[in-house]
Write a structure and sequence with these properties.
Elements (H helix, E strand, L loop, with lengths): L1 H13 L1 H12 L3 H6 L2 E4 L3 E4 L10 H11 L2 H17 L2 H7 L4 H34 L5 H4 L4 H24 L2 H25 L2 H8 L3 H7 L5 H8 L14 H24 L3
Antiparallel strand pairs: 1-2
Helix pairs in contact: 1-7, 2-5, 4-7, 4-9, 5-9, 5-10, 7-9, 7-14, 9-10, 9-12, 9-14, 10-11, 12-14
C-alpha cells in the first residue's frame, strides 16, 4: 500500500498544476481560522466579532467547520480527475502496466491516494477545530468538547465518496474537463429527477429515493448548520427544528457508493483496450 501511495504522490508532486491545486485544497479550508478572528465595525456604533457569537463553542463547532470545509473539496476533485486524464494523455498508464503494475494495483493506487489525502484533510480540520474551540468555547468539559466529533468521520467519508466518484468519472471519460462537466450534469440530473418524482409520487417516497442518490447522499452526511446556529440564539422557535445529527445509515449509503465507484473503475480499466 505504501509503495502505491508513494508512486502516486511522486506523479502528483512532479506535476506543477497538481502541486498547486493540492496546496490550495489544503489551505482554503483553513479560512475558518481567519473567519473566527474577523471583527466587523459598524460605523463606530459597535463591533461584531464572529468568535464572540458562540458559533465556535463546543460541540457545535465540529458541525460548522466540517460543513464549510467540505465546500472546498472541488479543488482536490480537479486533482483526482486530472491524475486520470494525465495517465491517458501522457501514456503513463500503459507504461505502468508494462513495468509490472497490475490493473488492480493501478486502481488501488488511486484509491489509496484518495484515502490518504482525505485522512490528512480530516486530521488538519480536526486539529484546527479543536484549537479554535479551546480558544473561544466557554465549555471545557471533555464530555462536551468531544460530544459531536463524529462530524469528522462524516467529513472523511464524504471526501472519500466524492473523490471516488471523480475517479470513476475520470476513468469513464478519460478527460478532466469532460469528467468535471459530467459531475455538474449529474447534480442537475439528480435535482430534475427529484422534482419529477415529487410531481408523480408523494413527497415521502420521493425524498426516500432522492436520499439514496450519489451526490445527495454525500450532502446528507453533514447538513447545513445555519438553522442550528439560529436555534442556539432563538431556542423558542420550534418551527426551525431539524435533524442535523450524523446517522450510521447515511455513512453506510456513501460507503456503498464508494465501493461501487471503485469497482466500476476497475471493471472499466480491465475491459478497456489500452
Amino acid at each position: 500500500m505504501l509503495r502505491l501511495i508513494q508512486l502516486e504522490l511522486q506523479k502528483l508532486w512532479l506535476n506543477k498544476a497538481s502541486r498547486v491545486l493540492i496546496i490550495i485544497s489544503f489551505i482554503l479550508p483553513f479560512t475558518v481560522l481567519i473567519l473566527s478572528s474577523i471583527k466587523i465595525n459598524f460605523f463606530g456604533f459597535f463591533t461584531l466579532e464572529l468568535g464572540e457569537l458562540g458559533i465556535f463553542n463546543f460541540p457545535i463547532i465540529w458541525h460548522i467547520t466540517t460543513f464549510f470545509a467540505a465546500q472546498f473539496k472541488f479543488f482536490f476533485a480537479i486533482v483526482v480527475v486530472s491524475m486520470i486524464g494525465n495517465e491517458y494523455s501522457n501514456k503513463t498508464l500503459k507504461q505502468n502496466l508494462i513495468d509490472g503494475l497490475s490493473k488492480k494495483e493501478f486502481i488501488l493506487s488511486k484509491f489509496y491516494t484518495i484515502v490518504f489525502f482525505s485522512l490528512c484533510a480530516t486530521l488538519l480540520i480536526g486539529l484546527a477545530t479543536f484549537l479554535i474551540g479551546l480558544y473561544y468555547s466557554s465549555y471545557t468539559e471533555a464530555s462536551i468538547i468531544f460530544r459531536e466529533v463524529e462530524f469528522l468521520l462524516a467529513y472523511f467519508v464524504k471526501l472519500v465518496g466524492f473523490f471516488s466518484l471523480c475517479l470513476f468519472l475520470g476513468m469513464l471519460l478519460k478527460r478532466s474537463a469532460f469528467a468535471l462537466g459530467f459531475l455538474f450534469l449529474l447534480f442537475i440530473t439528480e435535482s430534475i429527477t427529484y422534482g419529477l418524482m415529487k410531481w408523480k409520487l408523494n413527497e415521502t417516497v420521493a425524498d426516500g429515493i432522492y436520499n439514496f442518490m450519489p451526490l445527495q447522499s454525500m450532502w446528507n452526511l453533514i447538513n447545513q448548520p445555519i438553522q442550528r446556529i439560529v436555534m442556539t440564539k432563538f431556542p423558542e422557535k420550534a418551527d426551525i427544528m431539524y435533524d442535523y445529527a450524523v446517522h450510521w445509515y447515511e455513512i453506510a449509503i456513501v460507503l456503498g457508493w464508494t465501493a461501487i465507484f471503485i469497482f466500476l473503475s476497475y471493471r472499466l480499466l480491465k475491459k478497456r483496450d489500452l
